[in-house]
């Protein structure tokens, strides 16, 4: 990761994200923020394991350059391990909800997940910016690995609390999609990243996503026990389109997406 972020800016910009795309390099998202630009740069790329092709390795070779083939191979293995871990976590979450442990497996097995490398440079005036503003991840699960520099905050017990970095552990966040899949029993994790004056910070975030055309729907047993269905059926492609084209992810993404989705359906049927 260091190798990429230390490249000359013109080389990084040669793989910059294009409007509407999830993949590539990005500095401050100036086109999406009116104030307090995030003090970070990212590299995002896809991972799925429903092909024999090494998707990540090929991405690095074809997009960044042949000199990044080894880096691509490393991230190919890392993403494979994260997908396996994510699927195990989904099984545990299903069991905790009282449904069959394999209930959600079909939803995620062929999904295209998102891998994101984050670099937060040191900032001379850290009080004027954030690495990443307060938000909940739209995805299902986020598996995060931090370096030794702290900066991740979660909102719990009505205050921001620091998540100390541990090199021997991952941080797992519930995202909006799994909130809907659990009928609201599991809540999306509101979090942010701050920067500091003296040290840069890096992190690796793997976002487990459903297959885009699969229906996101809470199990009938859970809805029956709860007495009401809190979220309409939707696909991951619907939510992805909403966050990429209509709405910047924040702490209210899921309720606002629900309103948008229902209004869209009303418009199409009227």
TrEMBL record:
Name assigned to this protein: Gibberellin 20 oxidase 2
Cofactor: L-ascorbate
Keyword Metal-binding tagged: yes
Family: Belongs to the iron/ascorbate-dependent oxidoreductase family. GA20OX subfamily.
Gene3D superfamilies: B-lactam Antibiotic, Isopenicillin N Synthase, Chain
Keyword Oxidoreductase attributed: yes
Single GO molecular function: gibberellin 20-oxidase activity
Keywords: Iron, Metal-binding, Oxidoreductase
Pathway named in the protein's UniProt entry: Hormone biosynthesis; Plant hormone biosynthesis; gibberellin biosynthesis
Gene Ontology biological-process annotations: gibberellin biosynthetic process
Lineage of the species this protein comes from: Eukaryota, Viridiplantae, Streptophyta, Embryophyta, Tracheophyta
E.C. numbers: 1.14.11.12
Top-level taxon of the source organism: Eukaryota
Record field: transmembrane: none
Every Fe2OG dioxygenase domain range: 108-210
A Pfam family assignment: 2OG-FeII_Oxy
InterPro entries found in the cross-reference section: IPNS-like_FE2OG_OXY (IPR044861), IPNS-like_sf (IPR027443), Iron_ascorbate_oxido_reductase (IPR050231), Oxoglu/Fe-dep_dioxygenase_dom (IPR005123)
Organism for this UniProt entry: Glycine soja (Wild soybean)
Catalysed conversion reaction: gibberellin A12 + 2 2-oxoglutarate + 3 O2 + H(+) = gibberellin A9 + 2 succinate + 3 CO2 + 2 H2O
PROSITE patterns the record matches: FE2OG_OXY
């Amino acid at each position: 990761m260091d190798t990429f972020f230390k490249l000359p800016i013109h080389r990084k910009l040669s793989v910059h994200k294009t409007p509407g795309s999830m993949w590539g390099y990005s500095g401050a998202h100036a086109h999406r923020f009116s104030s307090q630009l995030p003090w970070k740069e990212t590299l995002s790329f896809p991972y799925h394991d429903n092909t024999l092709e090494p998707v990540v390795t090929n991405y690095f070779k074809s997009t960044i350059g042949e000199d990044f083939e080894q880096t691509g191979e490393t991230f190919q293995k890392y993403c494979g391990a994260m997908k396996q871990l994510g699927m195990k976590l989904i099984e545990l979450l299903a069991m905790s909800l009282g449904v069959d442990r394999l209930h959600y497996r079909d939803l995620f097995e062929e999904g295209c997940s998102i891998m994101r490398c984050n670099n937060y440079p040191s900032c001379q005036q850290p009080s004027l910016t954030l690495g990443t503003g307060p938000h909940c991840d739209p995805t299902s699960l986020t598996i995060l690995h931090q370096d030794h520099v702290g900066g991740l905050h979660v909102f719990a017990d009505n205050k921001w609390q620091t998540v100390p970095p541990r090199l021997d552990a991952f941080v797992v966040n519930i995202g909006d999609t799994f909130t809907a899949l659990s009928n609201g029993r599991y809540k999306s994790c509101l979090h942010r990243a701050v920067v500091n004056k003296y040290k840069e910070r890096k992190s690796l975030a793997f976002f487990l996503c459903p297959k885009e055309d699969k229906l996101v729907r809470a199990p009938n047993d859970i809805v029956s026990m709860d007495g009401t269905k809190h979220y309409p059926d939707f696909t991951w492609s619907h939510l992805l389109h909403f966050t990429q084209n209509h709405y910047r992810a924040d702490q209210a993404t899921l309720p606002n997406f629900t309103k948008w989705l229902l209004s869209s359906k009303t418009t199409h049927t009227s």
